[in-house]
Amino acid sequence: MRAAPAGHRRRFESFPLPHRALGPVLAAAATFAAWTAVAHNSGSGWVQTLGAILAGFFLVGLVVPGFATRRARVAVAWSPADVTAGQPAIIELTTSGSLRVGPVSPAGPVLLTGAAGRRELRIVPDHRGVLDRVVLDVSSAAPFGLVWWTKHVTLPLAQPLYVAPRMGLGDPEAFVEASQVGDGQRRVRDESGETSGVRPYLPGDNRRSVHWPATAHAGELMVRELEGPRAKPVTVRAELPSDEAAAERVAERALGTVAQVLHTGAPVLLLTNEAAGERSGLVATTGQAGRRLAQAQSPLSAFQVPPPPGEAQ
Amino acid sequence: MSRAINAIVRANRAGPPENSIVLRVAAVGAVVVSIAACVAEGELNRPVAIASSVALIAGSVFSYRRRANPMSWLKLVLAVAALGGFFWFFLHISRHGGVTSIADVLGPLALLFTWIQLTHSFDTPSRRDLGFTLAGSATLMAVAAAQAVDTSFAFYVLVWGCCCLAGLMAMWGSMAGGSPVRVQTGVIALLGVVVASAVVVAVLPAPHASTTVIFPSDLAGDVPIATPNGLVGGANGQEPVHAATADGATRVGGFLGFAGPLNTAVRGTLSNQVVLRVRADKPTFWIAETFNHWTGQSWVPGPAPPGTVQWQAVKSGSPFYLPLSAGNVVRGSPDVQTFYLAAGGPNLVFHAATATTVWFPAQRLYVRDDTILASTSLGPGSVYTVASAVANPTKAELEAPAPRGVNSTLPAGVLAQSTQLPHPYPDVARLARSITAGKTTTYAKVLALEAWIGAHTRYTTDIPPLLPGQDTVHQFLFVSRRGYCEQISTSLAVMLRTLGIPAREATGYVPGPYNPITDLYDVEASDAHAWVQVWFPGWGWQSFDPTAQVPLANPSPADALAHDALGALGQLPLIPIGVVVLAAGALTVVLRRRRARPATWTQAISFELLEAARRVGVVAPDDATLSQLAERLDTVLGPAPPGELSATALATAAEEAAYGTVEVTDSNRSELIIAARRLRRRARRTAKHDVRPDPPPGPRPMTPRQPAGAGRP
C-alpha cells in the first residue's frame, strides 16, 4: 500500500465468477436428475413439467446472478483524506442495485446495499501508506439468492487516503538528536509574552489572565492566551528499515515521539524519506506527522506499486 | 465423530430471524396451493385439506411471532411428530399389502408430506426454514402432479409457481439488506423461468410409459353390465347401445364404429370434446373394434369360424393375458399404453395393434379378434393399461415372400371370413384388377389402390345418408366418389377382397394431438376413425389408412411446442393486434415527448441555453448560474445579430421572471422562447463552422439551477 502513480488511478473489473457455487450446482443437478429419472420412468408428464419448472428456477437462480453482477456498477462518491492504521475509514459508494460489497484491499466488513443509491462502506487499513484505490468484491445473487456471483472491482478513491501509522510509544532517544533531548529543551508557555487570543476560562487558569473586555462581551469568563518566545524546533528523524513490518513499528514509534515532543509545546521538524527523496518539514500536529509518515519509506527499498489484478505490468 | 456431531449441530443451529412477511406469505401460499392441488387430484379429502391449511397458517403466524425467541423444546416435539408421520406411513403401506399401484402410495404420501409441512410450520424462524417450506411444497406438488392428466392442473402449477417466484425474490431481497422486490425484476425473472422451463421441456425426452413399474388401472364408479358381452356407452358409460339415426346419435360416443354394427350409410356428428387421454410410447391407431363381415351397407362381427366361439371370456383377473386370435402374431417392440377416460364411452378396451396384456380392475374381459370388451361400464375417470406388440415392418419386409412356419397362412375359416363379400362386385373387381395390374405383391396392390382412391375420390362428410339397399362401395366408387372415412376404408377393403386379399375394417381413434406438458395424447370425439387392416403372412394384420395421411412419427416435445405455438400464432388476429401495437407505440412516443418537454417557459429557455452551450462546448462549473453560463456563451457566440437577443439578455429575463417581481406577458414569453431557439440554432451554426478542441477534462458542463415559480409557456 504505497502511493500509486497517476496511471493506476482508474477502474478495473474482473469477470464475475460464481462464489461457493459447487454446493448449489451439485444439489440442483442431483435434484433435477433424480426428478427427471422419476418423472421419466413413471411416465408422468406433469411431474416432468414440474421438474422442468424447478429446473427453470434453478437455471435462472444460478445463472442470472452472473449477469446481474456483470451489470452492477459501484463507484466511490467520497472518501476521507486521513485515517490511522487499524481504524475504520468510511467511504461513500454509489451502487446500482442490491449488492453485497466486501472490501478486499484494504479489508473491512461486508456491506449489503439493499437498493441503489449512496451507501457508507467501512474499510480498515491495517498498515500505513497512501491509498489511491480500493479493491472490492461486488456480489449479487439476484433474483433468487441461490448463489452469489462475485467480481473484483478496483475503484479509484475520490482523493488519496493517507493511512497514518498507529500511535506508538514515544522514544525521543531513538529519534531525536541527543543534544535536543532532556528537560533543557522543554518548552513551556510563557505568561509574559504577547497576547495571541482569548479563550474561555478553564479551571487552573491564572486569574490575572482574565481578559475583562472579552468577558463582558462574551458573558462568560475569558482568558488571554499568550504567545511564548519561538522555540527552536526539535528534529525527529524517521529512518525506516527495509523490512515492511519493522518499518511499520518504527513509524509507529516515530509518531509517538512526535506526539510526545509536540505535547511539550516545541515545534517538530520531521525528517523522512519519501519517493521523491529525503524531506524535512515542520509538523504542527500529529495529523500532519501521520500524513508524512504515511508517505515515508525506507531509503533502501525500491518504490514499487503492485498492479491491479489482471492488468499488464 | 465429534466433528460430525459439530457439523450436525452447526447445520441445525437456528439462523437469524427472518422478518420478511412477503417471504412467509409466499411460502405458506405455496404449500396451501400444493395441498389444494392434491385435493383436486383426489389424493387428499377436503376436510383434511382445510384443517391442514388452517393449522399451517396458524403455525406460520405462531412461528413469525416467536421468530426472535424460538423454543428449542418445540423443535424436539415437532421432530417426534414428523417421525410419527413417517411411522404411520410405512405402517399404512405394509398393512395394505404393500404397493400394488401408484394410487396406493400417492394418497398416504400426500398426507405424510402435508403432515410434515404442518409440523414444520410451527418452527420456521429463519430464512433457511422458509426455504425448506418452499422446497417441501414442490414435493407435495409432485405428488399431485403424478395423478394429473389434464391441463386444468396448469392452474395450480401457475399459482404455485407465482408463490415460489415471490418467495424466492423476497428471500433475495431479505438477503440483500431488506430492499423491496421490484415488479419489473419480478416480471423479468418470471419470463426467464418460463423460457428456461420451456427449453428444458423441449430438450428432455418425453417420459416413457413402457418403463413404468406399476401399471395404473382404476374404475371410477363403474358397474357390471347386464349382458356379459354386451355393448354399452353413453354419457355415463352405462346406457345400452341402440341403432344409429341419421344425425349419428348412437349413445356410444356419437361414433357408429362403437355401436356393434358399423353402418356406413350414416355419418355421426362428432364434437371436439376430449373423450380419453392416452400415454404411450408412440402414436398409433387406438383400436376399438374390428369387423369381418360386410353386408353391403354395414360391417358386422359375423359368425364365428367353425370350432370357435364368437366372444372368448378371459377370467384371470388383472392383469389379463389375452389369447392370440387367429392371424395375429406377436412381433415387434412392446408398447404400453395407459388410457385415462375423460368422458363416458363404450365398454370397449382400446389398444394399439396386437394387445397381449391388459391391466384392468375387473374379473373378466371378452375378446373377439382384436376387439376387447370390458365386463363393466366405463365411466369418466376410469383408467386401464394395455401392453401391445407393435410391429413396424418395412416395405421390403412386407413385400418379401411369406416365410414358412408360424402364421404363414390364415386358417381357412378366418380366410373365408376376411375375404367374404355379400355379392361378387364384378365392376369393383374389374376396377381393382385394372388398378393393380402389374403389381405382384400384396403390399404393392394395397399401395396402388390407396393411391387411386387418393387421386380419384374426395373426403367429405357433407353427403346425404344412403338409401336403404344402396351399396356403399358401388355408390362411392362409381357414383359420388365422395364420402367419409368409413366409406373410403370400406371401398379399399372390398376392392382388396375382390382380389382375394384378406382385409377387414377397424374402428377406433387416431392418436389425437400430443400434449407436451402432460405427455398425453388428448383424444377428442372427432378423432374417431375407420381404417383397413390387411393380413400379411408372418406379420399378421397391418393397418392402412386410405382416408388421410395420419401422422405416425412420434412428435418430440420441441416439435409439439413449436407446432402449438405456431398454431396459436396463426390464429391470432394479427391486423387488429398490429394496429393496437402501433397505436400503443405512437402513444408512448407522444407521452415521452410531452414528458421531456420543459414544464415552464423559464425551463424552456434554460434548456435552449444549455443546448447552445453544449453545441459550442462551453463548460461552466456546477454551481454557476444561468447568467454566468450565458456570459460565457456570448463570449463564444459574439454579439447577437439585429433582431435577436443575446444569451445574457435571455438569462436575465428568465431569472428576473423567476426570482424577481417582473411580470411577463404570454406574448413576451413566446417571443423569448423563439429568441432562445434562434440562439440555439446560431450556436449550432457556429459549432458547424468552427472546429473546436474537445473540452478539457474537469467539471462537467453546469446544470444551472432551474428558475422556479414561473408560468408555463
How would you concisely characterize the structure shown here?
Chain A has 313 residues and is an alpha+beta fold. Chain A has helices spanning 22-42, 45-71, 172-175, 212-218, 244-263, 286-295, and strands at 12-13, 17-19, 74-78, 82-84, 89-95, 100-105, 111-112, 117-123, 129-140, 148-164, 194-200, 222-227, 234-237, 268-274, 277-283.
Features:
heterodimer; A: 313 residues; alpha+beta; 7-stranded mixed beta sheet; 3-stranded antiparallel beta sheet; 6 helices; 15 strands; B: 713 residues; C8orf32 fold; 4 domains; 7-stranded antiparallel beta sheet; 5-stranded antiparallel beta sheet; 45% helix; 13% strand; flat; disordered C terminus
Task: Explain how this protein is built.
The complex is a heterodimer of chains A (313) and B (713). Chain A has 6 helices and 15 strands. With 313 residues, chain A is α+β, with helices and mostly antiparallel strands. Chain A has 3 domains: 159 residues, no CATH class; 104 residues, no CATH class; 43 residues, no CATH class. The longest helix of chain A is centred in the N-terminal third of the chain and has 27 residues. Chain B is α+β, with helices and mostly antiparallel strands and 713 residues long. Chain B folds into 4 domains: 189 residues, no CATH class; 162 residues, no CATH class; 120 residues, Roll (C8orf32 fold); 137 residues, no CATH class. Chain B is built from 20 helices and 22 strands. In chain B, the strands form 6 sheets. Chain B has a 7-stranded antiparallel sheet. In chain B, strands 11-5-18-21-22 form a 5-stranded antiparallel sheet. Chain B has a 3-stranded antiparallel sheet with strand order 3-7-6, with no helix packed on it. The longest helix of chain B has 24 residues.
